[in-house]
Amino acid sequence: MNLARAFTAMVSLAVVAVLFAVVALGTTLRSADASVVGRAHGLLGIVARRISAAYSAQITTLRSDLAVPLPLATLDGYGRRVVSATIGDNEGVDGGLFLDAGGIVADAPQRVANARERTAIAALARSVERGGALRFATVALPGGDLVAIDAVPLTDRSGVAWARERISASVLHGAQALTALIAAAVACSLALVGIGAWIVWIIRRDAKRVLVAIGALEADPAAHPQLPRGDFGAIARAVTTMSERRAAAEALAQRSERLAAIGRLAANAAHEIRNPLNALRLQVDLLRRRLGNGLDEPAAKLRAEIERLDAVVNGMLAVGSDGPVAANRLDLRDVAERAIDALEADALVRARTIRFACTATDTIVYGDEGRLVQLAINILANAIDAAPPQSMIEVKVSPGPMLSIADTGGGIAERDTSQVFEPFYTTKPAGTGLGLAIAHEIAHAHGAAIAVHSAPGRTEFRIGFPGERHG
Q1: In sequence order, what are the beta bridge partners of 39?
Q2: Which of 39, 228, 334, 461 is the one with CA 20 to 30 A from 10?
């Protein structure tokens, strides 16, 4: 879409909208006057009927009581009281009678002083007497004011009851202004709708061309599809340039993301663990020297665990590297038993029991013992966290050889099973998302296959190792 063309089209449509508004303005102003006057006549017709009914009822009673003709002055005074009471709170409304015997009488609360209004009332009254129904008229006064008059015949046909209201020029101008504003708003809205529709049409047309071009490029990267001109053409050309590099960029991003996660993992472990381990090693040595030989065995166990943790840190730093893994000949039963020894006390405190079984005759694996123990500890710790109190956690070495660790917790949701080994992914409120990720990397580094099988009430991790090496 060309922005210059769009701007030109918007200006053209705006000019058309202004012309439309000017043409419509005269009609809308006249309709505004008619609306105001129409509302006034609606009220005046009601008032005139009420005056007719009230006066006719009262005068009929008065004539029957007196049984003599009533003078015009009496009819005028009596009529003014009836009219004033009938009009009530209708502010700005006057009324009165037009009698055959005396013309305009009983005009209240204001006397009719304007000659043009008196002439209009007389003419309207004669028209009503001839037609016998409601009639109305509008009189224009100097200065722009209007007078609306409605008249109905009296019940005894002796004259006409009428009501009038003066409509000031300011009220008419206000209605005209409001109507003009509405007309202008409608015109502008129509212009905006037209502009929007045109822009949408242009966008959809050029977007369709871009999609066709992208489809052609996906089918044949060497193709040179025709691209739209203007801004969408520039976007399409940028898309074609990016598509040429997409495959390489995605592969690089995946590798970079994995290495970055491993780097964060290693850096965090080295910073948070190594310094405290050095301090613990020093304190254990000092305690053994000060308290004598009675602590040799506990101190040796503590130091062994410290050394193991130090080895874990080194192993974490090596996760993801292409360097060789130590190929020491190990017994998978010993690996499992060391992991159980490290966590059994914690499991008992938390009312979980660990049961170990070995059904394999060949349990030899090759690798780094410290890292494999860490793998087993991470998975076993996860099982202890997931298992409910008073439950059994099963650790088993089976033919393959294979190490499996199972718990009877709530299971892992199906949507989470594909992500449990991702670094920093966790569903535990206080979890770090590192334990299973480290286990996965250690297994991968040793050529082992690690998998999780979960259902409500049971989750089992299985690590299958390569068999005995020959040669």
Answers
A1: none
A2: 228
Answer for the pair 450, 421: CB distance below 8 angstroms, yes or no. Answer: yes
CA pair distance 231, 30, nearest whole angstrom: 48
Q: Is residue 351 part of a domain?
A: yes
Structural domain harbouring 333: 324-464
For 29-88, the pLDDT digits (tens) are 455 556 667 777 778 888 888 888 888 887 777 767 766 667 777 777 777 888 888 887
- The total domain count for the chain is 2
CA–CA distances in Å: residue 127 to residues 21, 47, 412: 40, 19, 94
Has this prediction a pTM greater than 0.70? Answer: no
The CATH code of the domain that includes 379 is 3.30.565.10
Residue 372 lies in a domain: yes
Burial 165-204 (b: 16+ CB within 10 A, else e): bbbeeeebeebbeebbeebbeebeeebeebbeebeeebee
Cα 161 off chain centre by? 64
Q: Is residue 129 part of a domain?
A: yes
- Spatial separation of the C-alpha atoms in residues 297 and 303, rounded to whole Å: 10
